[in-house]
Amino acid sequence: MAPDTIYPKGKAAIREDWKRLPERLEQIVATWNHDRALRAMFQDEARLGCLSDALLLVSPVHFGSMRKIIHCDCDCFYAAVEMRDDPSLRGKPLAVGGRAEARGVIATCNYEARAFGVHSAMSTARALRLCPQLTLLPPDFRRYREVSQQILAIYRDYTPLVEPLSLDEAYLDVSGLEHCRGSATLMAEEIRARIRAEVRITASAGIAPNKFLAKVASDWNKPDGQFVIRPQDVDAFVAALPVSRIFGVGKVTATRLQKHGARTCGDLRAWELARLIGEFGRFGTALHQLCRGIDERPVRPDRVRKSLSVETTYARDLPDLAACHAELPALIAEFRRRFAKLSAPRPVHQAMIKVKFADFTQTTAECASAAPDEPVWAALLDEAWARRERPVRLLGVGVRFADVAACGAEENQPGLFE
Ligand code: DCP
Ligand code: MG
Asked: Could you tell me the distance, in angstroms and rounded to a whole number, from the CA of residue 25 to the centre of ligand 2?
């Protein structure tokens, strides 16, 4: 195949482009280091000097099946809704959360309050110490849900492939769409402009070839900004990314990785798959892919949550049952916050406890319950702990929802009970 069939430009321009082609192709192929077979074939072709054949090999994969994912996340969501409905709250530190006297915690706060060090999940008492002039409002979930529905309707004007993650976050797969000449960047700008005009709050967006990177990117220029990770930039971007930005890598795992010299995803690439699996079990396989910027999870508009749970790995093992019980209230409080964020909560069917012991064995206990409270989870904890009676490295509490069989879809969020 002659170069001019690929580059329908003038001859001089073709010659210039042709000179740069090997470099350009290498760049493209570097973004798919996950597809070893393809890469090897490409390199053989390129070595043999058949660049046009190499290009043919590359283009269907690169240009044909590369996905465009947008992750949208509203800025200080609950606080933004409150400021919209009462403009006198603007420009001053504001938080939404429970009262200090009731041992409440901050659900979120505006960016003025963040300047004082206030943040989500902090106790309200501490937030008030950091920022005595903080205005505190109780949450109004009904209003937040209404706003959430309005924003989802905007997303669905662009694509039916919308997967809500919580009230203020969603993934959109906009691959192959014709809006905005197919540019996901322009689509994200337009969507954000519509949210601002129609809902009167701001949102940030990340645009990338997969969900993992789109979510990282939406945080990059927050608030009221967006960030694009182009396919050809994935490799370098992820190499420099701290391992703590990988979903599922919490403080304990990040510290453990750092101890072994893996601070960035680039460092982690030196680890063989077998070593990662040895250290982290099934999550090791995910880590092997994620540190290379690979995430094949599809955007699933039909995803039906079948359970919700929160878990914590403790920096120091909990020595006995009493120490485990002492951790339960904090876990339950975090569970309730996450539950309140669900966009479409369904009836609860079972309560669950997960215990991972110091020797890495794991067990779960569950019982029927429509509205679990602390005594229900505490009884499950007794039951689970009694099975091995040894120090505990991880505790989780959660629920299963009713009617999963009828819905027929599966939850694939990390950190759930399995
Ligand atoms: N939320 C909560 N408890 C938490 C975290 C969040 O109740 N620990 C609630 C309040 C947030 C909403 O969920 O407004 C969305 O969560 P985000 O993590 O997206 O946080 P924000 O939208 O508030 O801020 P950001 O601008 O950082 O996205
Ligand atoms: Mg948000």
From this structure: 38
Look up the CATH superfamily of 66-229. Reverse transcriptase/Diguanylate cyclase domain (3.30.70.270)
Ligand in closest contact with the CA of 78:
1
Q: What is the pLDDT of residue 238?
A: 97
Q: Can you name the CATH fold of 235-290?
A: DNA polymerase; domain 1 (1.10.150)
Of the candidates 67, 4, 6, which has an alpha carbon nearest to the alpha carbon of residue 31?
Answer: 67
Helix axes 141-156, 77-85, angle to 10 degrees: 100
pLDDT at 52: 58
Residue 5 has pLDDT above 60, yes or no: no
What ligand is nearest to the CA atom of residue 337? 1
Hey, which of 140, 227, 341 would you mutate to test ligand 1's pocket, going by the most ligand atoms within 8 Å of its Cβ?
Answer: 341
**325-348 pLDDT, tens digit each:** 999 999 999 999 888 878 776 789
Q: What is the DSSP letter of 263?
A: -
Ligand 1 centroid from CA 121, angstroms = 9
311 is catalytic: no
Domain boundaries, the chain: 3-64, 66-229, 235-290, 307-407
Residue type, 279: E
Digit-coded pLDDT (tens) for 11-56: 565 566 566 666 666 666 665 555 565 666 666 666 555 655 555 5
Going through 148-244 in order, the beta strands assigned E by DSSP cover 162-166, 169-173, 203-208, 226-228
Which protein residue's CA is at the shortest distance from atom 3 of ligand 1?
A: 107
On whether the CB atoms of residues 172 and 70 are closer than 8 A, the answer is yes
Quick one: tokens of 152? 């989802």
pTM: 0.75
- Could you tell me the pLDDT band of residue 7, with boundaries at 50, 70 and 90? very low
Q: Is 163 in the pocket of ligand 1 (CB under 6 A)?
A: no
